[in-house]
Every structure is written in structure tokens, then in C-alpha cells.
Amino acid sequence: MPSSFNVESADGYERLMGRWSRKLAPMLINFAGLADGDRVLDVGCGTGSLAFTLAQTPGLREIAAIDYSPVFVEAAKGRNTDPRITIQQADACALPFEDNRFDRALSLLVLHFVPEAGKAVAEMARVVRPDGIVAAAVWDHYGGMSGMRMMWDTVVMLDENALPLRRRYCFQPMTRPGEMKQSFIAQGLADVEETSLLIRMDYLSFDDYWGPIAAGEGPLGKYVGGLEPGKRQAVDAAVRAAYEAGEPDGPRSFASVAWACRGRVA
User: Fold this and answer.
1) Which of 18, 30, 80, 265 has the fewest CB atoms within 10 Å, counting from its CB?
2) Cα gap 58→238, rounded to integer Å
3) What is the percentage of the chain residues whose pLDDT exceeds 90?
């Protein structure tokens, strides 16, 4: 099942989201829990933020990671030096593992880009042993991503063609309050809990903030890359003005909230 996330390059993704994934990964791991000897699956590993954070726990027996994007798989493999970690290209909705293989399956910032997210949750539950844990986190796009919402809200003031794209961004699968919890319960998971996780996205400058989008990364980057030159110039200027907010260019910090959910395989 293809991801709806637009990938231009692994380095571009690192600037857009990978650096923030690394801040969120320890929080999801703490929420999901770990035990010595665990076999853990990372569903949608991207460039490896979660898998390599998991590897900092010496007692884990195995860390298997999959991603749909060959670009991400190649980048993560190139960074891997831990023999416990294996990385392969695979579909979150058709995991290439037998039933009950893992003690835990985790997914960080992935399910909201999977068109049939419930099927991915079901697959995670299938490959986890009874009493094992399935856990995931996704951004709260509508209410919790102030920095990204500022971009979208600025763009739609200049181009009504961006309105359906903003709606899609704000209400992607699993991003509404309680939506991921309902999906976990629907897939037969027990003792399901949902919470929110907070990090801050700290940027050095407007270029640090806008650069990955301007280069075409992610859903907004894909839209921006398709604009005719005049409109593109207007969008760049308007987003810069929103970022600077009347002050000189420089560091800015944005609160960013993710929904996190965990459940036990019955």
C-alpha cells in the first residue's frame, strides 16, 4: 500500500522531519515499554530515527525495520552498524513476517500516511505475540502542528487550489482525537490507551524552516514545486513574512504535538 508522503531525498527528509522524529522516538519507546530479550518491529522506519533509538537499549534481541520507500531503506541501511537491526523494503499493510514473530511492533509518524491505516494496525497486531504490544504515534496535524499549519494557512490565502490539500493534511487518517484508539480497538487490541506527546521544533532561520519544503519534500513541498514562477515567488514571500512576524530573520520555536496509542494483543 503506497504511502501518501512525497519523498525527494533522504537528506531532504532529514531536514524536514527526520530530526524531529529523533526527538519523538524516545517518548514513543517509553510509552510502548521495552523488556530485555524483546524482538521489536519498526513499521515505516524512514531514515531510521526509531530503529536506531531502539538500538540504544542493549538488552533487545532483534530490531526489524521496514519502509515502503526504497530511498529510505537505502539510506537507513547505509547508516546501520548494529547487527541486531535488519532493514527491508515492505508494505505496512502486508508485513513479510509470520504470525506472533515479535514482542512489540512500533510505528512512528507513519500511519497517517497509509491510506488503509486500519489494515496496517491489523498487520502489526498479527505479527506480535499474545500479550505483546502494538504502539504508534502520528502528528496532530489540525490542532498540534503550529509551524506546519502556519505554512498551509498562509498558502491558502494566496491560492484557493491549495484548499483541498490543506483539508487533506489536517484530517489525514488517525490524526483526529480518539481516531487511532478506535482503530486499535476495532482491530481487536486490548487495554488500549491514547495520549499526546509534545516536542518543540526549533529552527535556526527561515531557510532552515522553509528550505526542505522549497526543495519539494513532503505534501506541501510537492504542491509548492508545481507552482508557476510568479505564484511561487508570492508564496515564498508570504511564508517568510509569517515566519518572521515582523522581527528580523533568526531562530523560531514551534510546539508540536503527536497522538500516541498502544494496545495489547489479546
Assistant:
1) 30
2) 48
3) 91
DSSP sequence for the chain: ---SS--S-HHHHIIIIIHHHHHHHHHHHHHH---TT-EEEEES-TTTHHHHHHTT-TT-SEEEEEES-HHHHHHHHHH---TTEEEEE-BTTB-SS-TT-EEEEEEES-GGG-TTHHHHHHHHHHTEEEEEEEEEEEE-TTTSBHHHHHHHHHHHHH-GGGHHHHHHHHT-TT-STTHHHHHHHHTTEEEEEEEEEEEEEEESSHHHHHHHHHTT-HHHHHHHHTS-HHHHHHHHHHHHHHHHTTS-S--EEEEEEEEEEEEEE-
**Cα–Cα distance for residue pair 122/92, rounded to 1 Å:** 10
> What is the spatial distance between Cα 125 and Cα 206, in angstroms, rounded to a whole number?
42
Domain count, the chain: 1
- Residue 3 domain flag: no
Residue 181 is predicted with a pLDDT of 98
Q: Could you tell me if residue 122 is inside a domain?
A: yes
| Nearest CA among 237, 103, 230, 109 for reference residue 175 | 109
Residues 90-105 pLDDT 10s:
999 999 999 999 999 9
Name the residue range of residue 111's domain.
Answer: 10-265
Residue 155 burial (CB count, 10 A): 25
pTM of the model: 0.92
